[in-house]
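Thread: quick sanity check before group meeting

JM: Hey all, I'm pulling together slides for Thursday and realized we never actually wrote out the predicted structure for the chain we discussed last week. Dropping the sequence here so it's in one place. If anyone has concerns about the input, flag it before I start.
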Amino acid sequence: MDYCLWTINYNMKKYDVTGMGNALVDIEFKVQDQFFHDHGVEKGLMTLVDEERQNTLMGVISTHEAKKQCGGSAGNTVIAVSQFGGNSFYCCKIANDELGHFFMNDMKNSGVSHNLIEGGLEEGITGKCLVMVTEDSERTMNTFLGISQNFSVKDVSEYAIKDSKYLFIEGYLVTSPNGKEAMAFAKKTAENAGTKVALTFSDPAMVKYFKAGFDDVIGPSVDLLFANEEEAMLYTGKSNLMEAREELKKAANHFVITQGKNGAMIYDGDTFIDIEPYPTTAIDSNGAGDMFAGAFMYGITNGHSYASSGKLASMASSKIVSQFGPRLQWHEVKDILARLNP
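JM (edit): ok, ran it. Output follows.
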């Protein structure tokens, strides 16, 4: 396709980002480290559990302060795109139950379009993520996928992908054959429609145990990849970040490596850009990576450079870790945008 025609087509698309991932209701609690020891929970990781195990843990900490929001990794990211002023769409699967309707209403109130239809939901159990946050701001997740584990090709909205600048794929989907098939189908749909493809590894455990699945989905490459330092080294098999970032060029045309308190590193296709961190007091790291991806993708789909988008994402994620919960307030979004464009 002629470059000028491709640019016109790209800019005329309805959505900035269409995301796809596990639809989960996040239920977040503050706990002490002793809780993990007492109940056999591996700290700092996302662990898939059955409903009985999750209910047991929730019963133990039911008297603690809790915060409930629609979420999941890609869900948090497309909400962030919307909050900063972008247009986003979400492909997911929920059940016809109380939490499912909560999820759908919360997504609507967040300004995100979706593939969910009132009256057309299947019977089952909506997925839940128990997020346990400790005093060191570390988040540990025990996730019961519920009906979300049945997410498949039929839940992928082809029209939304074709009418989007970017498709954003959540790495957690790689754990099931039907999820991986949906990832591959969505990627092919995007590529055929001139929609760019972004992928997040989501969690070190996903890369450690499902690397072959990611290789299948990525194929020759993706347009944009999100990883943290550990994920980057696990995926490439390299023992240091400098070697890992060179190896990642084989998998992605552009990529972002988040580095926690040290900021982030962006490869824009030609050069590496160091993104400085913003001073903050970390309280809760839940959703920081999702927020970084959402703010960054809002930036690159709305006229900002990679450097400017990285700065926006760094400011947004530093704000997220300074408070309880994975979502910014609207006045905080306005403040961040004002700081970016004084």
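AS: nice. The CA atoms of residues 136 and 283 lie 7 Å apart. The chain has a mean pLDDT of 91.
JM: adding both to the slides.
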